[in-house]
Structure formats: C-alpha cells, structure tokens
Amino acid sequence: MQLTTVQLVSIVITLVLTILPGIYAGRKIKSADDYALGGRSAGIGMVAGSIIGTIVGGAATIGTAQLGFQLGLTAWWFTLGSGIGFIIMGLFYARPLRNSGLMTISEFLVVNFGKKAGPIASLSATAGIFFSIVASMLTSIHLIVGLFHVSLVAAASIIIVIVAALVFFGGINSSGMAGIFKILLVFATVFVGGILSYNDLGGLTGIRESFPAFPWLSLFGKGIEDSLFSLFSMVIGVISTQTYVQALFSAKDSATAAAGCVTAALIVIPVGLPSVMIGMYMNAMHPEINAIDALPFYLCIYLPEWLGGIGIAALLLSSLGSISGLALGIGTMISRDIFNDLFGLRDVKRLLWISRFSVLAVTFGAVIFVFHYLDSLVLHWNYLSMALRGAGIFLPLTFIVFFKGLVPKEAGFAAMIAGIMVACLWPFIFPDSANALFPSLAFNLLFLVPGVLWSLYKNKDRRV
User: Fold this and answer.
1) 3-state DSSP call for residue 251?
2) What band does 434 get if pLDDT is binned at 50, 70 and 90?
3) Nearest to 79 by CA among 230, 190, 278
4) CA-CA distance, 200 to 195, in Å (whole number)?
5) Domains of the chain and any CATH numbers
6) Do the beta carbons of residue 129 and residue 345 sit within 8 Å?
7) What is the pLDDT of residues 67-107, one digit of tens each?
8) Which candidate, 167, 180, 187, places its Cα nearest to that of 323?
9) How far apart are CA 249 and CA 255, in angstroms?
10) Residue 399 to residue 406: CA distance in whole angstroms
11) What span, in angstroms and rounded, lies between the C-alpha atoms of 54 and 42?
C-alpha cells in the first residue's frame, strides 16, 4: 500500500484532533483515583465511550475483516458476542458493581472471598487482558509497517508514543473522549466502505452467486462448537474485564453505569458487519493479498483519498485506543491491588505515576511478545484472552451478584484456583482439545454450587 499526500494529511489531522483532548484532560489528574475513575462523575456518553474505545480495537475492525476474508460471516461473532455481553453486564452486573464504591474486580472479590482472592483475581485478569493487548498490537504493527514502510522497531516506537499520548496523561477521561471520537470515525468510514462493498458485490443476490452458502454466509462457518466458544468467550470475557468494569465504577451512579453499558452494546454489535463485508469483497476482488491487509487496503484504494485517510486514522486509533484502554486496566490493578493493597503504599502521587508507567511497561511487553508471533491470527489471541479472564473471575463474580451472601469464602477461593489451574493445564493434558474455557467453568461450579447449597441448608436450619 502506498499512501498519497492527501491521505497522509488526513491521517495526521485526525490523529492530532483525537490525541490533544487526552493530553488536555491530564491537567485535571491529581491522583490515581482521578486517573482510573475520573472522579466517579462520568455520564452515559463517557461510560459508553470508555467501553467502546477499548472493545472497538484492531480485532473488531482489522481482525474481523481478516477472518471475513477467510471464512465470511462467522467473523461477526467478535462484536456480536461483545455486544451481548455488554447488554447482560448492563442489566445484571452494573448496579451491584457501581454501588460497591470500589475500583477493581479484585477488590470486589476480596470483599466477598477474603484477601487471598485478590492476587489470584489480579493474575487471571492481567494474563487475559495482556493477550487482548497482543491482538490489537498485532494489527497495529502490521498496519503501520504496511502503510508507512518502516521497520518493526520503528512501528513499535510509534505505537508506544501514541499510546502514551492517548492515555498516559489523562487516564480514563482520555480513553472515554477518544472512544467517542473514534466510533464516529469508524461509522463515517468503515460503514461507508461496508455499504459500498455490499453494493459492488451485487447485493445479496451477487453475494450468493460469488460465495457458497457454507461457510461464507453462515454464523457457524467455523463449526458449531467453535462458534459457540467464540460467543461464550466474548460474553464471559467482557464481564470479567477490569477495563469495562472500571468504566462502570467511573459512572456518577448505578443507573448511569447500566445505561452506558447498554448504549455501548447497541453501538458495538453492528460494527463487525461492514468489516466482514469488506473482507469478503477483497477476497472476491483481490484473493492474492494477505488477509490481515484486507480492510486497510480497501480504505486506501476504494474510498476517496481524504476519506480513506480518515479511515486509516480510525483503524490506527481503534487498535491503539484498545491497547491504551486495556493497559490502563492493568495499570489500575498494579497500582491499586499490588502497591496499595498488598504493599500498603498510600502516597497518591506515587500511585498515580505507578499507574502511568505500568501502562507503558505493559505496552512494551506486548511489543516484545508480538515480535515472536507476527503471522498469527488476531482473533485467536482475543478468544484466548477472554477465556483466561473468565476462568478465574466470571462464575465467582456471577455467584456473588446472584447469590449475595450465600457463597462461602472457601468455596469462592477454591473455585478461582481450580478455574485458573484448569485453564493453564488443559491444553497440555488434552492438546487435541485446546479449548479450556468450558472445562474451567465446570471446575468453578464444582466448588460454587455445593457452597451455595450448603449455605441455603444452614440458613434453613437456623429458621427452623
């Protein structure tokens, strides 16, 4: 791909307009709490923006187009599953989480299962989030190298600088503002491309003539088992992710948290469809290209130069904004759960800078990891990420919400340990069945269900 002068100017202007508000927001940040939660004053738009800014990343755009190029409609599961997850989160989880007045998922689990649950929850969440960062990092590096013809090291340096500008100074406020602006750009460019590619393929009739119904036009093109895994891993993963829970904690009240979450869902669900359509179009017109280049190639070639430049900037912001938001989640857990709760550090300015530098350290670590897996499938890392998060957090968190006061501390802690151990060991014990999400959840239930039943039995005895 070779960018024109008009496209380059559009990219630069768009990036500057997105980054400057984030840097400006940093002037109001005085503590780690301000950095992570923005003073707990976010409205529906900022809550939704923080969520969208993270979930609509490289996987939701470039990664979805990549799989759409290879298999068609089944690539939609990423944004479809995410949206369903956010609806469930908004309806059932947002209010109890926001009303807790806490900052991290780990703290919520510690309140219910004791202090020893904190490090386990942080480990599970951090490992899962890291692989999601890897997915967006993979798309970012390929995009920058392909567009600007620079080395891998130069591309990585550009990523670190932009991530710093997006979230290093302003924290969740920067992430929220960038998220709102980013989704407007995606709708203005990727959606336009999706409509144009649909029409150029001849509409539904032309698509049916160009592609076999299976796998291209089926949501289950990867098989029912793989597709259901994609759906459940996304639903479970988003509910178990610090970054999205952090957006709820930042809301001014529980009703705002719930409304922001559902609003984000309604925006996120359709985002994958135009990316799928563009991927299929590029397969029909340019089957020789690398699948991961399908979406940026289309924006550069088939949209007007000025709009294509904005579209490329939107893709960059999607990937880098996702990295920023996810790294912010890890940074919050490191400063709050480790340095504040575990080591007893109380200096607010020190905790603030620990959060900031943790964001950069995590980003740098993801760069090193991606250098070893440059040709891997983007969505593979996202689904692995969601499964790891869910293994130690989802069901323990869910049982706290739905069976308040009925989950014994010992049962909750044992369920977390069992889930994480199964997630880590399952691929080695059963290499032909690498999907460890469902076995992990089953082992969670082995401890949680008897624990709740025992509590109900004891409560019944007391009433008698």
Assistant:
1) strand
2) low
3) 230
4) 9
5) 5-378 (1.20.1730.10), 403-464 (no CATH)
6) no
7) 999 999 999 999 999 999 999 999 999 999 999 988 888 88
8) 167
9) 12
10) 8
11) 16
